Amino acid sequence: MIHSPQTFRSSPHFPGGGALPFGGCFAPETLMANLIELESLWIDAKDDPAFRAELDGLLTNYAGRATPLSHAPRLSEKIGVDVWLKREDLLHTGAHKLNNTIGQCLLAKRAGKSRIIAETGAGQHGVASATTAARLGLECTVYMGERDAERQAPNVQRMKLLGAKVELVTSGSRTLKDAVDEAMRAWVEDPDGSHYVLGSALGPHPFPRIVADFQSVIGREARVQCLDQMQDLPEVVVACVGGGSNAIGIFRGFVDDAEVELVGVEAGGRGVATGAHAARFSGGAPGVLHGTHTYVLQDDGGQIRETHSISAGLDYPAVGPEHAGLGASGRARYESATDGQALDAFGDLARLEGILPALESSHAVAWVIENSTALRGKRVLINLSGRGDKDLDSVIAAKAALAGGKR
Ligand SMILES: *Cc1c(COP(=O)(O)O)cnc(C)c1O
Question: Domain range for residue 111?
Fold first, then answer.
Protein backbone atom coordinates (compact mmCIF):
# COMPACT_ATOMS: atom_id res chain seq x y z
CA MET A 1 0.00 0.00 0.00
CA ILE A 2 1.41 3.38 -0.99
CA HIS A 3 0.54 6.32 1.22
CA SER A 4 0.57 9.90 0.16
CA PRO A 5 2.61 12.16 2.42
CA GLN A 6 -0.53 14.26 3.04
CA THR A 7 -1.36 11.85 5.85
CA PHE A 8 1.41 13.59 7.82
CA ARG A 9 0.93 16.56 10.05
CA SER A 10 1.45 19.51 7.73
CA SER A 11 4.11 21.54 9.41
CA PRO A 12 6.43 24.44 8.71
CA HIS A 13 9.19 22.31 10.27
CA PHE A 14 9.06 20.02 7.28
CA PRO A 15 8.82 22.36 4.32
CA GLY A 16 8.35 20.24 1.27
CA GLY A 17 8.07 17.11 3.41
CA GLY A 18 5.49 15.94 0.93
CA ALA A 19 5.40 18.64 -1.71
CA LEU A 20 8.75 17.97 -3.41
CA PRO A 21 8.91 15.72 -6.43
CA PHE A 22 11.51 13.74 -4.45
CA GLY A 23 11.15 12.22 -0.99
CA GLY A 24 7.71 11.41 0.41
CA CYS A 25 6.60 8.38 2.31
CA PHE A 26 6.00 5.23 0.27
CA ALA A 27 5.59 2.90 3.20
CA PRO A 28 3.49 -0.16 3.95
CA GLU A 29 0.36 0.25 6.07
CA THR A 30 2.06 -1.46 8.99
CA LEU A 31 4.81 1.18 9.24
CA MET A 32 2.64 4.28 9.02
CA ALA A 33 1.72 4.54 12.72
CA ASN A 34 5.42 4.37 13.67
CA LEU A 35 6.38 7.01 11.11
CA ILE A 36 3.62 9.42 12.09
CA GLU A 37 4.55 9.01 15.77
CA LEU A 38 8.19 9.67 14.92
CA GLU A 39 7.35 12.88 13.08
CA SER A 40 5.38 14.20 16.08
CA LEU A 41 8.16 13.18 18.44
CA TRP A 42 10.73 15.09 16.43
CA ILE A 43 8.61 18.21 15.97
CA ASP A 44 8.10 18.38 19.73
CA ALA A 45 11.74 17.64 20.59
CA LYS A 46 13.56 19.85 18.12
CA ASP A 47 12.57 23.14 19.75
CA ASP A 48 12.62 21.88 23.32
CA PRO A 49 15.56 23.56 25.12
CA ALA A 50 16.00 20.57 27.46
CA PHE A 51 16.34 18.17 24.49
CA ARG A 52 18.77 20.55 22.75
CA ALA A 53 20.85 20.90 25.91
CA GLU A 54 21.15 17.15 26.39
CA LEU A 55 22.05 16.64 22.71
CA ASP A 56 24.63 19.43 22.72
CA GLY A 57 26.12 18.15 25.97
CA LEU A 58 26.65 14.65 24.58
CA LEU A 59 28.00 15.96 21.26
CA THR A 60 30.51 18.15 23.09
CA ASN A 61 31.57 16.08 26.08
CA TYR A 62 31.14 12.54 24.78
CA ALA A 63 31.50 12.65 20.99
CA GLY A 64 34.15 15.37 20.88
CA ARG A 65 32.50 18.24 19.02
CA ALA A 66 33.33 20.76 17.67
CA THR A 67 35.56 18.92 15.21
CA PRO A 68 38.40 21.07 13.86
CA LEU A 69 38.74 22.75 10.48
CA SER A 70 42.26 21.98 9.20
CA HIS A 71 44.10 23.70 6.41
CA ALA A 72 45.89 21.22 4.10
CA PRO A 73 49.00 23.25 3.19
CA ARG A 74 51.06 20.62 1.40
CA LEU A 75 48.20 19.23 -0.69
CA SER A 76 47.18 22.83 -1.48
CA GLU A 77 50.67 23.64 -2.70
CA LYS A 78 50.92 20.47 -4.77
CA ILE A 79 47.64 20.93 -6.66
CA GLY A 80 47.33 24.74 -6.67
CA VAL A 81 43.98 24.72 -4.84
CA ASP A 82 43.43 26.18 -1.34
CA VAL A 83 42.19 23.01 0.41
CA TRP A 84 40.55 22.92 3.86
CA LEU A 85 39.27 19.83 5.67
CA LYS A 86 36.33 19.54 8.08
CA ARG A 87 37.59 16.82 10.39
CA GLU A 88 34.67 14.44 11.08
CA ASP A 89 37.36 11.73 11.14
CA LEU A 90 38.18 13.00 14.64
CA LEU A 91 34.69 12.37 16.03
CA HIS A 92 34.32 9.44 18.49
CA THR A 93 34.06 6.12 16.58
CA GLY A 94 35.86 7.74 13.64
CA ALA A 95 33.12 9.20 11.43
CA HIS A 96 30.14 11.56 11.32
CA LYS A 97 27.66 8.73 12.04
CA LEU A 98 27.56 9.43 15.79
CA ASN A 99 25.89 12.86 15.24
CA ASN A 100 22.82 11.00 14.02
CA THR A 101 22.81 8.02 16.40
CA ILE A 102 23.08 10.26 19.47
CA GLY A 103 20.19 12.40 18.23
CA GLN A 104 17.93 9.47 17.35
CA CYS A 105 18.71 7.52 20.53
CA LEU A 106 17.77 10.58 22.59
CA LEU A 107 14.48 10.67 20.65
CA ALA A 108 13.94 6.99 21.47
CA LYS A 109 14.49 7.65 25.18
CA ARG A 110 12.15 10.64 25.06
CA ALA A 111 9.45 8.32 23.69
CA GLY A 112 10.08 5.90 26.55
CA LYS A 113 11.55 3.18 24.37
CA SER A 114 14.06 0.75 25.81
CA ARG A 115 15.46 -0.74 22.62
CA ILE A 116 16.87 0.43 19.30
CA ILE A 117 17.07 -1.37 15.99
CA ALA A 118 19.64 -0.46 13.34
CA GLU A 119 20.83 -1.72 9.98
CA THR A 120 24.41 -1.65 8.83
CA GLY A 121 26.38 -2.33 5.66
CA ALA A 122 30.05 -1.88 6.39
CA GLY A 123 29.35 -1.82 10.11
CA GLN A 124 30.09 1.86 10.78
CA HIS A 125 26.49 2.81 11.54
CA GLY A 126 26.10 -0.40 13.53
CA VAL A 127 29.13 0.49 15.66
CA ALA A 128 27.89 4.07 16.17
CA SER A 129 24.44 2.75 17.17
CA ALA A 130 25.90 0.15 19.56
CA THR A 131 28.18 2.80 21.08
CA THR A 132 25.34 5.24 21.67
CA ALA A 133 23.04 2.52 23.00
CA ALA A 134 25.71 1.53 25.52
CA ARG A 135 26.15 5.13 26.68
CA LEU A 136 22.40 5.73 27.04
CA GLY A 137 21.49 2.33 28.49
CA LEU A 138 19.39 1.10 25.57
CA GLU A 139 19.22 -2.43 24.21
CA CYS A 140 20.52 -2.62 20.65
CA THR A 141 19.87 -5.05 17.80
CA VAL A 142 21.78 -4.54 14.55
CA TYR A 143 20.73 -6.21 11.28
CA MET A 144 23.58 -6.96 8.93
CA GLY A 145 23.75 -8.93 5.69
CA GLU A 146 25.64 -12.20 6.08
CA ARG A 147 27.96 -11.29 3.22
CA ASP A 148 28.77 -7.90 4.75
CA ALA A 149 29.42 -9.54 8.13
CA GLU A 150 32.03 -11.80 6.53
CA ARG A 151 33.70 -8.84 4.81
CA GLN A 152 33.63 -6.64 7.95
CA ALA A 153 34.35 -9.14 10.72
CA PRO A 154 36.15 -6.66 13.04
CA ASN A 155 33.09 -4.38 13.14
CA VAL A 156 30.88 -7.37 14.04
CA GLN A 157 33.24 -8.02 16.98
CA ARG A 158 33.14 -4.34 17.98
CA MET A 159 29.33 -4.27 18.04
CA LYS A 160 29.25 -7.42 20.17
CA LEU A 161 31.85 -6.04 22.60
CA LEU A 162 29.69 -2.94 22.93
CA GLY A 163 26.81 -5.15 24.04
CA ALA A 164 24.74 -5.19 20.85
CA LYS A 165 22.99 -8.19 19.36
CA VAL A 166 23.98 -8.73 15.72
CA GLU A 167 21.32 -10.44 13.57
CA LEU A 168 22.70 -11.85 10.33
CA VAL A 169 20.40 -11.47 7.32
CA THR A 170 20.49 -14.38 4.89
CA SER A 171 17.85 -13.23 2.37
CA GLY A 172 18.42 -11.67 -1.06
CA SER A 173 21.95 -10.51 -1.80
CA ARG A 174 22.75 -10.72 1.97
CA THR A 175 23.91 -7.07 2.00
CA LEU A 176 22.69 -3.65 3.16
CA LYS A 177 19.49 -3.54 1.09
CA ASP A 178 18.30 -6.77 2.73
CA ALA A 179 19.38 -5.58 6.20
CA VAL A 180 17.16 -2.47 5.80
CA ASP A 181 14.19 -4.69 4.88
CA GLU A 182 14.72 -6.82 8.00
CA ALA A 183 15.21 -3.84 10.32
CA MET A 184 11.94 -2.29 9.11
CA ARG A 185 10.17 -5.60 9.67
CA ALA A 186 11.56 -5.84 13.22
CA TRP A 187 10.37 -2.29 13.96
CA VAL A 188 6.83 -3.12 12.84
CA GLU A 189 6.83 -6.11 15.20
CA ASP A 190 7.79 -4.04 18.26
CA PRO A 191 6.51 -0.50 17.64
CA ASP A 192 5.95 0.37 21.30
CA GLY A 193 9.24 -0.93 22.67
CA SER A 194 11.66 -0.02 19.89
CA HIS A 195 12.90 2.79 17.68
CA TYR A 196 14.52 2.22 14.28
CA VAL A 197 17.71 4.30 14.00
CA LEU A 198 18.06 4.73 10.23
CA GLY A 199 21.68 5.39 9.29
CA SER A 200 21.59 7.92 6.46
CA ALA A 201 19.44 10.73 5.05
CA LEU A 202 17.25 8.14 3.36
CA GLY A 203 14.06 6.15 3.71
CA PRO A 204 10.47 7.32 4.15
CA HIS A 205 9.64 10.76 5.52
CA PRO A 206 10.40 11.89 8.21
CA PHE A 207 13.76 10.02 8.32
CA PRO A 208 15.66 11.99 5.65
CA ARG A 209 14.67 15.24 7.33
CA ILE A 210 15.54 14.08 10.86
CA VAL A 211 18.93 12.66 9.89
CA ALA A 212 19.81 15.81 7.92
CA ASP A 213 18.84 17.98 10.88
CA PHE A 214 21.10 15.99 13.23
CA GLN A 215 23.99 16.08 10.73
CA SER A 216 23.58 19.80 10.00
CA VAL A 217 25.79 20.50 13.03
CA ILE A 218 28.72 19.82 10.65
CA GLY A 219 27.77 22.68 8.34
CA ARG A 220 26.88 25.08 11.16
CA GLU A 221 30.29 24.62 12.75
CA ALA A 222 32.14 24.68 9.41
CA ARG A 223 30.59 28.00 8.32
CA VAL A 224 31.70 29.75 11.53
CA GLN A 225 35.16 28.15 11.35
CA CYS A 226 35.61 29.21 7.70
CA LEU A 227 34.69 32.82 8.48
CA ASP A 228 37.16 32.73 11.37
CA GLN A 229 40.11 30.90 9.76
CA MET A 230 39.74 31.76 6.03
CA GLN A 231 38.21 35.14 6.82
CA ASP A 232 35.73 34.30 4.10
CA LEU A 233 33.30 31.64 2.94
CA PRO A 234 34.67 28.74 0.89
CA GLU A 235 34.03 29.03 -2.84
CA VAL A 236 33.34 25.29 -3.23
CA VAL A 237 32.12 22.71 -0.67
CA VAL A 238 32.75 19.05 -1.56
CA ALA A 239 31.52 15.87 0.15
CA CYS A 240 31.16 12.20 -0.72
CA VAL A 241 27.61 10.90 -1.14
CA GLY A 242 26.51 7.41 -0.11
CA GLY A 243 23.02 7.82 1.29
CA GLY A 244 23.96 11.45 1.62
CA SER A 245 24.03 12.26 5.34
CA ASN A 246 27.52 13.74 5.71
CA ALA A 247 27.06 15.72 2.49
CA ILE A 248 23.66 17.15 3.45
CA GLY A 249 25.09 17.90 6.89
CA ILE A 250 27.83 20.15 5.51
CA PHE A 251 25.72 21.52 2.61
CA ARG A 252 23.07 22.77 5.08
CA GLY A 253 25.61 25.29 6.39
CA PHE A 254 26.09 26.88 2.96
CA VAL A 255 22.96 26.20 0.91
CA ASP A 256 21.64 29.75 1.51
CA ASP A 257 24.94 31.30 0.35
CA ALA A 258 24.15 31.29 -3.38
CA GLU A 259 27.78 32.06 -4.30
CA VAL A 260 29.08 28.86 -2.63
CA GLU A 261 29.19 25.94 -5.06
CA LEU A 262 28.08 22.57 -3.65
CA VAL A 263 29.52 19.36 -5.11
CA GLY A 264 28.57 15.81 -4.11
CA VAL A 265 30.87 12.97 -5.16
CA GLU A 266 29.45 9.49 -5.74
CA ALA A 267 31.24 6.19 -6.19
CA GLY A 268 32.35 5.80 -9.80
CA GLY A 269 33.56 2.26 -9.01
CA ARG A 270 35.40 0.74 -11.98
CA GLY A 271 34.12 3.63 -14.14
CA VAL A 272 30.54 4.72 -14.83
CA ALA A 273 30.73 3.28 -18.36
CA THR A 274 31.43 -0.23 -16.99
CA GLY A 275 28.15 -0.43 -15.02
CA ALA A 276 30.12 -1.42 -11.89
CA HIS A 277 29.53 1.70 -9.76
CA ALA A 278 27.10 3.47 -7.44
CA ALA A 279 26.69 6.75 -9.40
CA ARG A 280 22.94 7.24 -9.08
CA PHE A 281 22.83 10.67 -10.73
CA SER A 282 24.56 9.69 -13.96
CA GLY A 283 23.49 6.03 -14.07
CA GLY A 284 20.15 5.94 -12.26
CA ALA A 285 16.57 7.04 -12.87
CA PRO A 286 13.79 8.32 -10.59
CA GLY A 287 12.11 5.51 -8.68
CA VAL A 288 11.12 4.33 -5.21
CA LEU A 289 13.37 2.31 -2.90
CA HIS A 290 12.95 1.84 0.86
CA GLY A 291 10.07 4.27 1.06
CA THR A 292 11.42 7.30 -0.76
CA HIS A 293 11.21 8.67 -4.32
CA THR A 294 14.69 9.49 -5.57
CA TYR A 295 17.36 8.52 -8.10
CA VAL A 296 17.75 4.73 -8.04
CA LEU A 297 20.05 2.42 -9.98
CA GLN A 298 17.59 0.11 -11.73
CA ASP A 299 17.24 -1.85 -14.94
CA ASP A 300 14.61 -1.19 -17.61
CA GLY A 301 12.16 -3.43 -15.75
CA GLY A 302 12.59 -1.44 -12.50
CA GLN A 303 14.68 -4.15 -10.80
CA ILE A 304 17.36 -2.78 -8.47
CA ARG A 305 20.81 -3.09 -10.02
CA GLU A 306 23.91 -4.48 -8.32
CA THR A 307 26.28 -1.73 -7.25
CA HIS A 308 30.03 -1.66 -6.79
CA SER A 309 32.43 0.55 -4.89
CA ILE A 310 35.74 0.00 -3.15
CA SER A 311 34.16 1.86 -0.20
CA ALA A 312 31.28 0.03 1.44
CA GLY A 313 29.72 3.29 2.70
CA LEU A 314 29.06 4.55 -0.83
CA ASP A 315 27.82 1.19 -2.16
CA TYR A 316 24.02 1.64 -2.15
CA PRO A 317 21.59 1.86 -5.09
CA ALA A 318 19.59 4.95 -3.98
CA VAL A 319 20.58 8.48 -2.97
CA GLY A 320 18.97 10.62 -0.25
CA PRO A 321 15.94 12.50 -1.64
CA GLU A 322 17.14 15.96 -0.57
CA HIS A 323 20.17 15.48 -2.84
CA ALA A 324 17.87 14.45 -5.69
CA GLY A 325 16.05 17.76 -5.16
CA LEU A 326 19.26 19.82 -4.92
CA GLY A 327 20.53 18.15 -8.09
CA ALA A 328 17.29 18.69 -10.01
CA SER A 329 17.14 22.37 -9.02
CA GLY A 330 20.79 22.88 -9.97
CA ARG A 331 21.74 24.18 -6.50
CA ALA A 332 24.22 21.30 -6.10
CA ARG A 333 25.92 19.16 -8.67
CA TYR A 334 26.86 15.52 -8.42
CA GLU A 335 30.05 14.04 -9.85
CA SER A 336 31.90 10.79 -9.30
CA ALA A 337 35.38 9.43 -8.59
CA THR A 338 36.55 5.91 -9.41
CA ASP A 339 38.00 3.28 -7.06
CA GLY A 340 41.47 3.97 -8.45
CA GLN A 341 41.21 7.74 -8.05
CA ALA A 342 40.01 7.31 -4.45
CA LEU A 343 42.95 5.00 -3.68
CA ASP A 344 45.40 7.55 -5.08
CA ALA A 345 43.79 10.34 -3.04
CA PHE A 346 44.01 8.16 0.08
CA GLY A 347 47.78 7.89 -0.48
CA ASP A 348 48.19 11.60 -1.25
CA LEU A 349 46.42 12.74 1.91
CA ALA A 350 48.39 10.23 4.01
CA ARG A 351 51.80 11.29 2.69
CA LEU A 352 51.17 15.04 2.33
CA GLU A 353 49.02 15.77 5.39
CA GLY A 354 49.52 12.87 7.81
CA ILE A 355 45.85 11.89 7.65
CA LEU A 356 44.53 8.45 6.66
CA PRO A 357 41.05 9.26 5.31
CA ALA A 358 38.18 6.80 5.03
CA LEU A 359 37.89 5.43 1.50
CA GLU A 360 34.46 7.14 1.30
CA SER A 361 35.97 10.54 2.11
CA SER A 362 38.85 9.80 -0.28
CA HIS A 363 36.33 10.12 -3.14
CA ALA A 364 35.74 13.79 -2.27
CA VAL A 365 39.49 14.43 -2.06
CA ALA A 366 39.98 12.60 -5.37
CA TRP A 367 37.44 14.78 -7.18
CA VAL A 368 39.25 17.93 -6.02
CA ILE A 369 42.63 16.56 -7.14
CA GLU A 370 41.22 15.45 -10.51
CA ASN A 371 39.67 18.89 -11.09
CA SER A 372 42.53 21.00 -9.76
CA THR A 373 42.92 22.90 -13.03
CA ALA A 374 39.33 24.15 -12.97
CA LEU A 375 39.59 24.83 -9.22
CA ARG A 376 42.94 26.65 -9.39
CA GLY A 377 43.41 29.18 -6.57
CA LYS A 378 39.93 28.57 -5.11
CA ARG A 379 39.08 28.06 -1.44
CA VAL A 380 37.72 24.52 -1.34
CA LEU A 381 36.21 22.93 1.78
CA ILE A 382 36.16 19.11 1.83
CA ASN A 383 34.10 17.21 4.39
CA LEU A 384 36.45 14.50 5.66
CA SER A 385 33.59 12.25 6.78
CA GLY A 386 35.70 9.58 8.49
CA ARG A 387 39.08 8.04 9.15
CA GLY A 388 40.68 5.24 7.21
CA ASP A 389 41.79 2.81 9.91
CA LYS A 390 38.83 0.55 9.02
CA ASP A 391 39.97 0.48 5.38
CA LEU A 392 43.60 -0.59 5.76
CA ASP A 393 42.93 -4.18 4.64
CA SER A 394 41.03 -3.00 1.54
CA VAL A 395 43.72 -0.48 0.64
CA ILE A 396 46.56 -2.97 1.06
CA ALA A 397 44.69 -5.65 -0.94
CA ALA A 398 43.85 -3.20 -3.74
CA LYS A 399 47.45 -2.01 -3.94
CA ALA A 400 48.71 -5.59 -4.08
CA ALA A 401 46.24 -6.36 -6.89
CA LEU A 402 47.40 -3.27 -8.81
CA ALA A 403 51.07 -4.19 -8.33
CA GLY A 404 50.29 -7.74 -9.51
CA GLY A 405 48.55 -6.37 -12.60
CA LYS A 406 51.59 -4.31 -13.54
CA ARG A 407 54.03 -7.16 -13.30
C1 LIG B 1 28.75 5.73 6.17
C2 LIG B 1 29.82 6.62 5.68
C3 LIG B 1 29.65 7.44 4.53
C4 LIG B 1 28.44 7.39 3.65
O5 LIG B 1 27.25 7.76 4.24
P6 LIG B 1 26.55 9.16 3.99
O7 LIG B 1 25.21 8.99 4.61
O8 LIG B 1 26.49 9.40 2.52
O9 LIG B 1 27.36 10.21 4.66
C10 LIG B 1 30.68 8.31 4.18
N11 LIG B 1 31.82 8.36 4.90
C12 LIG B 1 32.02 7.59 5.99
C13 LIG B 1 33.31 7.70 6.70
C14 LIG B 1 31.04 6.70 6.42
O15 LIG B 1 31.25 5.93 7.49
Answer: 28-60+97-211
Same domain, 102 and 245: no
List beta partners, residue 380: 83, 236
Let me know whether 127 and 145 are in one domain: yes
Question: Are 108 and 230 in a shared domain?
Answer: no
Indicate whether 224 and 313 sit together in one domain: yes
d(CA 105, CA 111): 10
Same domain, 223 and 117: no
Residue 165 annotated in active site: no
The residue type at 285: A
* 32 in any annotated domain: yes
- 23: in domain: no
The 10s digit of each residue's pLDDT in 138-195 is: 999 999 999 889 888 899 999 999 999 999 999 988 889 899 999 999 999 999 999 9
Please choose from 99, 129, 314 the residue to mutate so as to test ligand 1's pocket, defined by most ligand atoms within 8 A of CB: 314
**Which of residues 177, 211, 245 is at a domain's end?**
211
pLDDT-derived band of residue 352, with 50, 70 and 90 as boundaries?
A: very high
Task: Give SS3 for 111.
Answer: coil
Rounded to whole angstroms, the Cα distance separating 209 from 201 reads: 7
Give residues (CB < 6 A) around ligand 1. Answer: 95, 97, 124, 200, 240-247, 313-314, 358, 360-361, 385-386
Mean pLDDT for the chain overall? 93
Residues contacting residue 279 through CB under 8 Å, at least 6 positions apart: 266, 267, 268, 269, 272, 336
pLDDT one-digit tens code per residue, 267-313: 999 999 999 999 999 999 999 999 999 999 999 999 999 999 999 89
By most ligand atoms within 8 Å of CB, the mutation choice from 385, 390, 392, 394 for ligand 1 is 385
Residue 385 falls in the annotated catalytic set: yes
At 21 the pLDDT is: 85
Of 86, 97, 113, 177, which residue is the catalytic one? Answer: 97
Task: Over range 346-375, report the average pLDDT.
Answer: 98
